[in-house]
Amino acid sequence: MKILVIGGTNFIGPSVVHRLHAIGHEVTIFHRGKTLAELPLGVKEIKGDRAQLPEMKSELQCLSPDVVLDMILYTEQDALTTMKTFKGIAQRVVAISSIDVYRAYNVLLGKESGIVPVPLTEDSPLRQQLYPFENMPQRALNAPADYDKILVEQVVMSDVELPGTVIRLPMVYGPKDPLHRLFPYLKRMDENRLAILLPENFAQWRGCYGYVENVAQAIALALISPQATGRIYHVADLQFSEAERLSHVGKAAGWQGKIISVPKHYLPADWNLPFNTEQDWFADTTRIRQELGYSEVISQEEALRQTIDWERSNPPQEMPQWTGLELLDYPTEDEILTRLP
């Protein structure tokens, strides 16, 4: 099968490309050339900006991909450009989406009221408000203000001439994670903190995570499986409370301390989490497991070991702004520890 990957050089993309190449598919990646990636021999590259896709239609027609994987669909216009370009060329488009499409995400952010039942299924209610990052002064991964995967999905899944498949991703971690999701916790563990304190409501909260190699396996299956046409899938690893998840991280890191859940009355009076932890945010993955035969290719223990090794060798220059928001400063943490029973 001929597969064209739009993006494909940053974090998740190379793992997808390696998997597709290893099982014998002909892979070409279209990218800007700004990110270097170790790609298998034989993988072709086309350099250009996604806005130039319509101008390159004749070149892409000669390539004649069977399936197009678009890793960097952020806006409605991105999706319209992809579908317009590949109509009459490809047989299917696979779009990478996110579980931020759900109403539960807005409830988590405090933008909508009520509590959405979990685990989320592919048919759970979507956000009632569009553009979740519109009013944020700083946006993760430099997402544009008009970022919205809901609109992306609507465009990709509504074209009768060019069928689509959607993969809704969780929070993805692993080597080369640009958000360094484990680093704030690993830093404390490597500094031999005796304990990491989590607000009780956050310690019990359950989010949705996926290791990069497992996510890549799910995407590869969606690309090569004809039965994925017209379908939407979740992918995620085993899901734990935050206290449980970080305990697993500590074990993998060789840390001798412990995760402690702290009742609210021990916390500073003016300290609040920036999200509503009454709303869990994790997804059911039954559909992709049953329909495409997906299962994790890397165990949790190995996934954490590989991630920790990479984080230790590649610490960020500054503390990530998008993770560790629930963590207290060391003096406050030490003072609370003296008061805990």
Automatic annotation (TrEMBL):
It holds the Pfam family Epimerase. InterPro entries: Epimerase_deHydtase, NAD(P)-bd_dom_sf. Gene3D superfamilies: NAD(P)-binding Rossmann-like Domain. Residues 3-236 form the NAD-dependent epimerase/dehydratase domain. Belongs to the NAD(P)-dependent epimerase/dehydratase family. This is NAD-dependent dehydratase. It comes from Gloeocapsopsis dulcis AAB1 = 1H9.
